[in-house]
Fold:
Amino acid sequence: MAGDDIEARVSALENMVAELVAQRISELPAGMASAADPLWALNGIEARVPQGAVLYVGSVRTPSGKTLRWQYGEPASDVFDREWADLALQLTALASPVRLRILQAVLRGVTTATALVEELGAGTSGQAYHHLRELTAAGWLVSPRRGVFEMPPARVVPLLAILVAAGTPAP
Structure:
């Protein structure tokens, strides 16, 4: 008898949850109600910012085990109006295969300059420090103590977004 009561209560709860989910989905902007909508993110942006925006988001678990969530966006008009040349330092710092390998290694948990030199076979420690200085100056890395480097959490998803954008197949 007690088992029947629990079953009835669980069944009632399941029905209430299903109704709430159905109600919440019906409140979503047009085009977002379908889980199969391939443009769900774009439709969400357009519903919230009709004048247009550029947004990137990410929820990632890094190879070193950190879970990071990040979302950032700007109105498209602000991006078009900005002086793009002001971003040359940040972009130039990424324009080196050695520096990209350093960033990848740091995200995998290699954090000391000595270990990075060994891991990458990047030549001398002087050469490695040159690249580490460039990445630090551009804000891609920080050095909390001498000879140790890490990527600020606020830079991980932006870097991954740049890599995804760079690897996007041309139409």
User: Anything to note?
Assistant: Strands lie at 53-61, 67-75, 142-145, 148-150. The first helix runs from residue 2 to 26. The chain is about 55% helix and 15% strand.
